[in-house]
Amino acid sequence: DAKTTQPPSMDCAEGRAANLPCNHSTISGNEYVYWYRQIHSQGPQYIIHGLKNNETNEMASLIITEDRKSSTLILPHATLRDTAVYYCIVRPSTGNQFYFGTGTSLTVIP
Amino acid sequence: KAGVTQTPRYLIKTRGQQVTLSCSPISGHRSVSWYQQTPGQGLQFLFEYFSETQRNKGNFPGRFSGRQFSNSRSEMNVSTLELGDSALYLCASSGDRGRTQYFGPGTRLLVL
After folding, report:
1. Under a CB-based contact definition with an 8 Å cutoff, are residues B7 and B108 in contact?
2. Shortest distance, CA A59 to any CA of chain B (angstroms)
3. CA quadruple A35, B105, B52, B36: dihedral positive or negative?
4. Which chain A residues are within 8 Å of B90, Cβ to Cβ?
5. In tens digits, what is the pLDDT along chain A, a chain of 110 residues?
6. Contact B104 A97 (CB under 8 A)
7. B100: which chain A residues are within 8 Å (Cβ-Cβ)?
C-alpha cells in the first residue's frame, strides 16, 4: 500500500490560501488520493478525493501532479475553523482500509 | 441523510473486562470499517465488514473482534481489556459505488 508523507505542521494567516502538500511517490495507477481532516479528536471529516485530474468542491481544491507522485490540498480562504489535522491518504485499489499517516497540523492564525 | 452514529460516546472500564461498541452506518451503506486512535499510534485500521462478512483485517490481536448485522449495523468487541486499549474508536461507513468513508464521532474508551 502506498504511503504518504506530509509536513508535521503548518501555519496560515486567516483569509489567505492554505496549501497543504502530500508526497505519495509509490502510488499505483488505480489508487485514489483522499483528504480528510480531524478537528480536536472528533471523527475525521471527508474533504475531497481524486485520481488524476484536479478536483474542486465547496470545501477545497485538490491538485495532483501529472506523475501522480504528489498532491496539494488548497483551502482558498482559511478561517479559524479550518484549524485541524489534515490527513492525505492513498486508498488501496481493493478493500476499504485507509492507512492514516501522522498528518499535517494546520493552525490558522488571526 | 443522517450521519454515522456511534454508541456509547464515552465509556470507562477496568482491566480484564470486556466492552462492546456499536455503530450505525449511513442509510444504504453496507461497508463498515473500524479504527482505533491513540496518541502514540495514531489512527489504525482494525477491520472492515461488508454484507455481514469481514472483508479486511488490520494487525490487531484476537481480543478485538466485530460483527455486522443484516441491517448493516456493526458492533466491535474487545475482550480482556488492557490499559493500552484506552483510545478513541471510530467507525466509518461507505456505499457500494463510492468508497469514500464517512466517519462517526467515535467512542472514547478509558480503561482503568
Report:
1. no
2. 16
3. positive
4. 43-44
5. 668 999 999 999 999 999 999 999 989 888 899 999 999 889 999 999 999 989 999 999 999 999 999 999 999 999 999 999 999 999 887 777 888 888 999 999 99
6. no
7. 34, 46, 49
How far apart are alpha carbons A34 and B77 in whole angstroms?
29
Alpha carbons B59 and A1: distance in angstroms, whole number: 14
B85 DSSP assignment: G
pLDDT digits (tens, 9 = 90+) for B38-89: 998 899 999 999 999 999 899 999 999 999 999 999 999 999 999 999 999 9
Inter-residue contact B64 to B5 (CB < 8 Å): no
Gap from A57 CA to chain B (nearest CA, Å): 15
Q: In what order do the strands lie in the sheet with B64-68?
A: B5-7, B19-24, B74-78, B64-68
Minimal CA–CA distance to B67: which of B81, B85, B54, B83?
B54
